[in-house]
Specification:
3-stranded antiparallel sheet; alpha+beta
């Protein structure tokens, strides 16, 4: 029987005007004003052939999921301490996802991405502290991904913090609200964004032929598309190791 004097610690994992995620004990409470995000997340986790969190309950606008075992593979702006075997295992898990039957939802088209890229680069040129050269070179690289691709079941937001590992194996992949049909190279790029030297480890597990230049193009695309959103929601893309650092590195 639970002692009523016990109170679980509530940790704020992320909070902004669109959504918030809280950790209470061994569960996460995800509060989202758009009910389609939770529905897609639940359906995607049911369809994905990789370890995912257990859904505890869903009462809109709140989705409760159980914490997965292990630790995050890394962080965008943090040191890389996971063993090579964990990155290889992550690549193997991504391949299993990309080989699975397609989900019913479509991600952004190349045409839409091109329009968004133009708008975000214009905003960055007007408002950011990045040199014009850095934005222009990355924009050119980003445009390389705007080509026909064979759609795959992609996670859609496969940040390194969303992949959990233990003992060299993937124990869970979290945050599936952006899952859709899309370019598989996008997932590979998102996960290795802050750790480009790990791309070859991931591809060892992934297998097959992968165009490294397209992955690099997605590194540029993701950073250019998300930087304004980060700034407007209180995050700092100019922090060491984050998006502006990645853009500068890619322009060198």
């Amino acid at each position: 029987m639970r002692d009523d004097r016990e109170v679980d610690t509530v940790d704020v994992v992320v909070a902004h005007s669109s959504r918030a995620t809280l950790r209470v004990g061994d569960s996460f409470l995800k509060v989202d004003g758009d009910p389609t995000h939770a529905r897609r997340e639940i359906d995607a986790m049911r369809l994905a052939p990789v370890p995912t969190p257990d859904v505890l309950w869903h009462e809109p606008p709140v989705l409760a999921v159980k914490a997965v075992r292990g630790t995050a593979l890394g962080s965008l702006d943090g040191p890389d301490s996971a063993p090579r075997s964990a990155w290889i295992a992550a690549g193997t898990a991504i391949r299993a996802l990309h080989d699975a039957p397609l989900p019913p939802w479509h991600g952004p088209s190349a045409a839409r991405l091109g329009r968004e890229l133009d708008a975000e680069c214009a905003w960055l040129l007007e408002h950011s502290e990045l040199p014009q050269r850095v934005i222009t070179q990355n924009r050119e690289s980003a445009r390389s991904v705007l080509r026909p691709w064979k759609p795959a079941f992609i996670h859609g937001d496969l940040q390194v913090e969303h992949v959990f590992v233990a003992d060299g194996a993937v124990t869970g992949i979290i945050d599936w609200s952006e899952a859709a049909q899309g370019d598989p190279a996008y997932d590979l790029a998102t996960m290795t964004l802050g750790h480009p030297y790990r791309l070859e480890d991931v591809l060892t597990g992934y297998g097959g032929e992968v165009d490294r230049d397209i992955v690099r193009g997605w590194w540029s695309m993701r950073c250019l598309l998300v930087s304004r959103w980060l700034i407007e929601h209180g995050y700092d893309p100019s922090a060491p190791g984050c998006e502006f650092d990645v853009l500068r590195r890619l322009a060198d």
